[in-house]
Amino acid sequence: MTEKKKNKNSALKVNKGIEQPSSFNPDASNRFKKSRQELLDVESYVKGILDKNRTVLSKAITLVESSLPHHQKIAQEIIEHCLPYSGDSIRIGITGVPGVGKSTFIESLGKSLTNQGKKLAVLAIDPSSERTKGSILGDKTRMEELSVDTNAYIRPSPSAGSLGGVARKTKEIIVLCEAAGFDTIFVETVGVGQSETAVHSMVDFFLLLMLAGAGDELQGIKRGIMEMADAIVINKADGDNLQKAKMAKREYTNALHLFPPADSGWTPMVETCSAKDKSGINKIWELIDQYQTLTKNSGYFIQRRKEQELKIMYETIKANFSESFDNNPHIKLMLPAIENEVLTGKISAYKAAQKLLDSYFKDLR
Ligand code: GDP
């Protein structure tokens, strides 16, 4: 920006002869310009994706992940155009605590699938990614063979935003990957809480990896997560661990029988495998195949995907409402005093909420 222009555009009145600071970070402006220059038109993105061009796919995913409004606008248009070409895949959620062997398992099962000619996309939801910038699940070297496999595409977790936001974006990335011809989608998550529920709501089959003899508490696995599982796979069933793994298989099978039957009509299975030795891996794919056959024949497969879509719609509405409420300037002004009134018992929590909501809706009118 020229000096003259800078002065003209500045909101500050600056005395002559004093150097004027740039009104914004020049680095940021360069980055912005760069990202603008790299943008294609929507048609080119869509064509590239349908042509299975990975560079274009990756660029489109970057737009989905971006929080810039003009990126989001293009991303949404790309998604709309890709939707009719999506859906023809099996989406599999894979979860388990760090160290259980998720990436080793994905590499083993993934290689076996790509060797059969399947096209595999591996996506990740990493709730800690805001802190670690996606390094836990984003490190491609964790899956050395798959990352150089032409039938596989590995995309690290979007590294910013709320879990809800990351989950929505992952769902949108699934659509793009499917339109680009990927017929098998793995969504990996670290088993530490809420992210499993988010993944469960976007996949057809949910696989929980466990270790033998580590104790449920140690593994951080809550009952609710076990209840969501279509298969529990006890990994590291090799060497000295083999017997323990077999015992754990019996225990988990008994535990699963205590859960109410699933809507899918599928009885969750427990299997053992060694991701490292690549043993027991094919058996797990057979399970997933059986699940597909059963649920496609019964109509559950399609029904569940439709329900998932509706759920996303409602969640998006809720998230937008609550963001709009939180960002409303009147609400922001009112909140400290009203909070205080609730804390000191002057008004009830219900009444306080009503007062705030009334004010919010009055603003909208
Ligand atoms: P993640 O954090 O869940 O992705 O786990 P990793 O795949 O990175 O595996 C953690 C560690 O367990 C690594 O040292 C792996 O080599 C090891 N590991 C993974 N699968 C197996 C297995 O089947 N048997 C044995 N013995 N070790 C395994």
Structural notes for this entry:
By secondary structure, the protein is α/β, with parallel strands linked by helices. The protein has 3 domains: 36-84, Up-down Bundle (Single alpha-helices involved in coiled-coils or other helix-helix interfaces), CATH 1.20.5.170; 86-298, Rossmann fold (3-Layer(aba) Sandwich), CATH 3.40.50; 313-364, no CATH class. It is 56% helix and 11% strand. It has helices at 3-9, 26-38, 42-50, 54-65, 69-82, 102-115, 129-132, 135-138, 163-179, 195-200, 216-219, 223-228, 242-257, 281-298, 300-327, 329-343, 349-364, and strands spanning 90-96, 120-125, 152-154, 184-190, 205-211, 231-235, 269-272. Strands 3-2-4-1-5-6-7 form a 7-stranded parallel beta sheet, sandwiched between helices. Helix 13 links the parallel strand 6 (231-235) and strand 7.
Offer a concise description of the structure.
This protein has helices spanning 3-9, 26-38, 42-50, 54-65, 69-82, 102-115, 129-132, 135-138, 163-179, 195-200, 216-219, 223-228, 242-257, 281-298, 300-327, 329-343, 349-364, and strands at residues 90-96, 120-125, 152-154, 184-190, 205-211, 231-235, 269-272.
